[in-house]
TrEMBL record:
It comes from the Bacteria. Its EC number is 2.7.7.70. GO terms for molecular function: ATP binding; nucleotidyltransferase activity; phosphotransferase activity, alcohol group as acceptor. It holds the Pfam family CTP_transf_like. Residues 22-116 form the Cytidyltransferase-like domain. It comes from Halobacteriovorax marinus (strain ATCC BAA-682 / DSM 15412 / SJ). This is D-glycero-beta-D-manno-heptose 1-phosphate adenylyltransferase. GO terms for biological process: carbohydrate metabolic process. It catalyses: D-glycero-beta-D-manno-heptose 1-phosphate + ATP + H(+) = ADP-D-glycero-beta-D-manno-heptose + diphosphate. The keyword ATP-binding applies. Keywords: ATP-binding, Carbohydrate metabolism, Nucleotide-binding, Nucleotidyltransferase, Transferase. InterPro entries: Archaeal_FAD_synthase (IPR050385), Cyt_trans-like (IPR004821), RfaE_dom_II (IPR011914), Rossmann-like_a/b/a_fold (IPR014729).
């Protein structure tokens, strides 16, 4: 079972009865595609809870050269977006146990994800919630930005 931070525990306790939307990701180099997606995610409920991949999990998923920005900086930036209400860092490769701990009303990912491929969809659906694949803004990706900066694009 995932051990929620005191901040996340208080957030969930203080917001009982509100429609909690959950999403997750690395959000390594924040770009307008991310912000568009997060704004759309927030519209699916009252509050947006974001699971943020730790530095260690990003290294396992994307390679030793990532992340570009450390988890403390990524968390700080995301916490200061108007659309994000709570950020919890997770160290696992997927947010499955975090989703199980949060039990959100709505689970969302970007439009490049099929609903049945979204990690935690089973938990949310079994608890009467919704799972949605939202808009995907073409032309924006952290990997693309990194390649462009390195002159590889």
């Amino acid at each position: 079972m995932f051990k929620l931070s005191e901040n996340a525990q208080n957030f969930l306790k203080n917001n009982q009865g509100k429609k909690i939307v959950f999403t997750n990701g690395c959000f390594d180099i924040l770009h307008s595609g991310h912000v568009t997606y997060l704004n759309e995610a927030k519209k699916q409920g009252d509050l947006l809870f974001l699971g943020l991949n730790s530095d260690a999990s990003i290294k396992r998923l994307k390679g030793e050269s990532r992340p570009i920005n450390g988890e403390a900086d990524r968390k700080y930036i995301l916490e200061n977006l108007r659309c994000v209400d709570c950020v919890e860092v997770f160290t696992e490769d997927t947010p499955y146990s975090l989703i199980d701990a949060v039990r959100p009303d709505v689970l969302v990912k970007g439009g490049d994800w099929k609903v049945t491929d979204i990690v935690g969809h089973d938990i949310v659906l079994e608890n009467g919630g919704e799972v949605k694949s939202l808009i995907f803004v073409d032309g924006y990706s952290t990997t693309g930005i990194i390649s462009s900066v390195q002159g590889k694009e």
